[in-house]
Amino acid sequence: MTNRNFASDNTAPVAPEIVKAILAANDGAAIPYGGDDWTARAKQRFREQFGAETDVYFAFNGTGANVAGLSALVRPWEAVLCPESAHLQTDECGAFERFSGSKVIPIPTKDGKLRPSDLEPYLKPVDVHFPQPRILSISQATEYGGVYELDELRTLCGFAHERGLKVHVDGARLSNAAASLGVSLRVVTASVDLLTFGGTKNGMMLGDAMCFLKPGLGSETGAFVQKQAMQLSSKMRYIAAQFEAMLAGDLWLKFATHANAMTKRMEERVRSIEGIRIARPVRCNAIFATMDHGAIERVQRDYAFLVWDERLPEVRWMTHWATTPEDVDAFAGALERAVSG
Amino acid sequence: MTNRNFASDNTAPVAPEIVKAILAANDGAAIPYGGDDWTARAKQRFREQFGAETDVYFAFNGTGANVAGLSALVRPWEAVLCPESAHLQTDECGAFERFSGSKVIPIPTKDGKLRPSDLEPYLKPVDVHFPQPRILSISQATEYGGVYELDELRTLCGFAHERGLKVHVDGARLSNAAASLGVSLRVVTASVDLLTFGGTKNGMMLGDAMCFLKPGLGSETGAFVQKQAMQLSSKMRYIAAQFEAMLAGDLWLKFATHANAMTKRMEERVRSIEGIRIARPVRCNAIFATMDHGAIERVQRDYAFLVWDERLPEVRWMTHWATTPEDVDAFAGALERAVSG
Amino acid sequence: MTNRNFASDNTAPVAPEIVKAILAANDGAAIPYGGDDWTARAKQRFREQFGAETDVYFAFNGTGANVAGLSALVRPWEAVLCPESAHLQTDECGAFERFSGSKVIPIPTKDGKLRPSDLEPYLKPVDVHFPQPRILSISQATEYGGVYELDELRTLCGFAHERGLKVHVDGARLSNAAASLGVSLRVVTASVDLLTFGGTKNGMMLGDAMCFLKPGLGSETGAFVQKQAMQLSSKMRYIAAQFEAMLAGDLWLKFATHANAMTKRMEERVRSIEGIRIARPVRCNAIFATMDHGAIERVQRDYAFLVWDERLPEVRWMTHWATTPEDVDAFAGALERAVSG
Amino acid sequence: MTNRNFASDNTAPVAPEIVKAILAANDGAAIPYGGDDWTARAKQRFREQFGAETDVYFAFNGTGANVAGLSALVRPWEAVLCPESAHLQTDECGAFERFSGSKVIPIPTKDGKLRPSDLEPYLKPVDVHFPQPRILSISQATEYGGVYELDELRTLCGFAHERGLKVHVDGARLSNAAASLGVSLRVVTASVDLLTFGGTKNGMMLGDAMCFLKPGLGSETGAFVQKQAMQLSSKMRYIAAQFEAMLAGDLWLKFATHANAMTKRMEERVRSIEGIRIARPVRCNAIFATMDHGAIERVQRDYAFLVWDERLPEVRWMTHWATTPEDVDAFAGALERAVSG
User: Are C40 and C242 a contacting pair, CB within 8 Å?
Assistant: First the structure.
């Protein structure tokens, strides 16, 4: 039977390569809290992929990595600028504000992407009456399935650094973005100061990584925020082994390329269906589309997916490493039947 | 080759029964964030073991469960009373203070156990100048490998409730305590308000559980603190499946009984060695002993374990589900050789 | 010489009636931390003005009162909705987020006032992924010198309560609003749950008051948040005596009426000046106006006032209890000269 | 009638010299938030008294100054070591923990004073599992009315700095200590990094000062923590003018010397009374004494003072700038009558 869940890439099971890595790590005693060999090797893989200066601390989930990582870089009277669609702003239940004491300043965007002109009005002279912007946080891929082009990133990071901001990339779906752009992880994170690199949405069981990409950036703080943010796993090897597998053989790329291709296939199948309008550029593993309420209701009898915005209504469909062409085709068929009533 | 790591029960690999449960859960799509069937079944197992009112929220690790659980019960001007040896006080890097804003009040003890007379001096009339004690937090088993007897628990919990305190049990090693006492999990947590039940030290890969044992206690708060404390796993099924396996067939008891027995075996082997003094009652899966610095150094060439207190010096040896009689006997032999120079 | 500072009502000195009250309180020993007679009498005056259920805690300043008061009503996973122009959002350096751990959700407005339709999009079903709105915080008078009419307040508070929100009024300039509306303090705060009532901008030396207006609302929390938010004065009588004087003889009304009248006089003088456009309705003691950069520069050689928005540019002029008709007329003359170059 | 309140030095009224300074400051408009002339002059006085590098930020009260000042120097995974009798630990309702997220580590002492040997056990190698000690906080005078001798301070500060700690002095009663030691404020704070200098207990209406005594220590943070900790007064001149008066003419010394002398007089009167035992060295403006419950009850019919420890019982009597010899003699007489039944 085909998989009928297009709600999110976190509905997917764990990929067999990852399972294998976990099982291989399950071998005898190991030093806890990251003193083990798997952790050492996984960190080496990160340095290979992201640069020799990369300082990595693992976290359990994306919220943990975002909150701990950002907290290492801000003081409580400093603020984080992000798109108002950022996961940090909309989906982390204020964990960052609670843990760090800092303010998040959400900036309206049309497409989930920020440009220098969006930031300008928030960058005022130092004033004790308002938290001082210190970090620019963007998502690559964006929460709308978009990607920043390399030149957009260069311009934006350059502007941010000029204005005294550090740049954080929420990379829950960085792999999908890099695959879409056809570049390495290192190229897609050039100029970035802090990356949170997610594995859960790309075939892992669980695990995220705070990567301080500039020399010294996390050296006094990374390990402490990891621990204090409740993200230090005692049996670290089981997270490390997954990342090792993901990065050692470009498994991340294989999975992300597949997921993106399945979404592209869906786009092709759906584009011609009357009654469905693809609402945003399709760049990674998500499609946002509008269709009428009745059709949504009909197709949701058999399929799971999110209604992103009830008012339009706009829906989101996601694919992942395990989505098959058959899953996509069956879904496209169901959509077609649903819109035709 | 025998296992030469007696540093902690978190150096152990994952038990095969748990691996099997994880693999079984790796089957197709699942609703994320705990909406899946494994989570539903695991929660049912908790209710069977701890009572029908039990309200369970999973966490990634013990620090996460302690911090999130306690934060659900205190306001920032309220305080937690605990032994000064509590994991909460000594090993969580102030995560509770940071996340909750509340104060931890550590109370000196001889053996890691609190009695009503220890608490009395801290229970003063309401006064805005000092955080009001609101929670009594104890560990069962204790950080010194001891256990509270059932009548001690009854007396202590009764006293705490009379004086307006709620009772939290840090149950990172609750299974070992229950096995040692020969009672069910429910009996050993009678009168307790909040339990944090650990699986990682008893054969799981990772996972802890906040269990609100009184009706309504966590109903408005549990899910929010779980999320805000960065403990909500998107692929929850992989934690839930482990707990389901642990509780469904009393696997927890099998593992804990074995770990305790291995420590008992070690106690028997070591008791007669001249130059080693067992420093505390041996009740679960840890031995605390004193021996001279030279002997420690010699045995640590081949074996890993903690020097708990450099000054005496006092060492700690732990066993776990995977420790074998051969491991123990080999270690006892090594100890004997080490002390005889 | 006339006063040439129209920057804010907090540039004013302390009114003689307030000085007299402070000196009268400076008499012998007094019980500290609010156990004194002046505090008792001042609290009684609040109950007379705001209703018999009013539970009052003094603070040093408006930020302290806002942060402590709101913190008494929210849990860290709950949020405060406010206009994006709110002092809480723009001028308190994130103190609320840091102290409470909660999120502030700023809502765009045209005039600093919120209506039910502005709130509606933020009131979604319970979802652990986002902080739950729990408080509606509005300013009366608004930061733009506007006021909510009584029927607007009734409608807005009714809507908020229906939707499970409590209502906070930032009353740094409540006196000016009540004077403008011609109603009592009680009438202008009907339906409000928490009021922070400011004295500093209306002739006092310093002092703000958290007023819990509904029975029981602050009874378990008010005193603790006052202390923990560093707002509990040991020599409380000197704050209390000021409030006693303000409320005993309707001094608040006298000062606010005068300040409003001075602004009205300025409006009349300025309205006819070509090159100055009054940009917002003038209701209390502030005028917002646009004029060209050169004119601003010329008049600022002799007068102090804020450029609110550099881009238009829009300026703000404020009057207070001590502003004289001569001050206003001289300023209007200076403005006229400045715009004519 | 004589003053019958010996409960605390904060029961005193405001000294006439201070009142005069406040009234003199009440003159026309002033720039708010510390941009005024009084603030500039008061800061200059601090530099004269404490050294040219002194960077001062005013606060409303001692808790505010302690919390804001310390928060400028610690990160949330760093800890403050202090005597367990410290005001920070016992009387600030956990404000520091809540605001900073950091841990306070209270150290038992006999007399409220710390020595290097008390600190040694808390200074362990870096370990992410426990908050790293970063600040040593001591009180001068101590909460038991004692003082650190200059050589004790030198030794303690030298030890702290060697071990990577910064030194904070809670100087709520620094004036009394300096007067008792017969040295300048600068000498008594040599080697100190952060001083919180209190005025309220020595004749002021209200006001405390965070003084960063080392170059650059507070330069990026002082103003922000002052604001974010809700300690930034809009009408700052009224606090600044008080400090200006205190420091310009050594008024601090006159008041403290007097208060100390009154306590010394009381000690002399009381020493010979049978049934009263002076329990601690009398160095400043507090006497700690033991006497029986009945006598306490009898004398408390007419006099206010604290029972410090109910169990002994031990009481505390304090004098201040306004205590007269007649007050003291009358109280000594009352004590004599009370103990003789």
Answer: no
pLDDT at D220 over 90: no
Q: Mutate which of B91, B234, B238, B320 to disrupt the A interface (most A C-beta within 10 Å)?
A: B234
Per-residue DSSP letter, D5:
B
Q: For residues B169 and B171, what is the distance between their CA atoms, to the nearest angstrom? A: 6
D98·B101 Cβ contact <8 A: yes
Helices (H), C26-149: 37-50, 62-73, 87-90, 95-100, 116-119
CB environment D185-196: b (16+ within 10 A), e (fewer): beebbebbbbbb
Cis peptide before C141 (omega within 30 of 0): yes
**Which residue is it, tokens 């207990």?**
D201
Question: What is the residue whose two structure tokens read 């708990």?
Answer: B308
Report the residue from A79, A94, A99 with minimal CB separation from C94: A79
Predicted confidence band of residue D1 (pLDDT cuts 50, 70, 90): low
Of the candidates B77, B91, B128, which has its C-beta nearest D130's C-beta?
A: B91
State the pLDDT at residue C1.
Answer: 66
Residue of higher predicted confidence among D314 and A249: D314
SS3 C74: coil
List helix spans (H) across A33-149: 37-50, 62-73, 87-90, 95-100, 116-119
Q: Are D317 and D266 in contact (CB under 8 A)?
A: yes
Local confidence band at D69 (pLDDT 50, 70, 90 cut-offs): very high
ipTM: 0.97
Task: Give the angle C61-C62-C64 at the CA atoms, nearest 5°.
Answer: 70
Instruction: Assign B186 to helix, strand or coil.
Output: helix
Interface of C with D in 1-20 (CB under 8 A): 3-5, 7-8, 10-14, 19
Q: Is B275 left (phi over 0), alpha (psi -120 to 50) or beta?
A: left
List phi, psi (to 5°) of D219.
-70, -30
CA B45, CA B209: separation in Å to the nearest integer? 12
Question: What pLDDT was estimated at residue A325?
Answer: 98
Between CA A281 and CA A279 the distance in angstroms is 7
Mean pLDDT of chain D: 97
CA atoms within 13 A on the CB side of A244: 21
Task: Match 């209200």 to its residue by tokens.
Answer: D206
Identify the burial level of B120 via C-beta atoms within 10 angstroms of its C-beta, where 0-12 means exposed, 13-18 middle and 19 or more buried.
exposed
Non-local CB neighbours of C104 within 8 Å, separated by 6+ positions: A103, C79, C80, C82, C88, C89, C96, C97
DSSP-assigned letters across all residues of A196-251: EEE-GGGT-SS-EEEEE-STTTTTTTHHHHHHHTT---TTTHHHHHHHHHHHHTTH
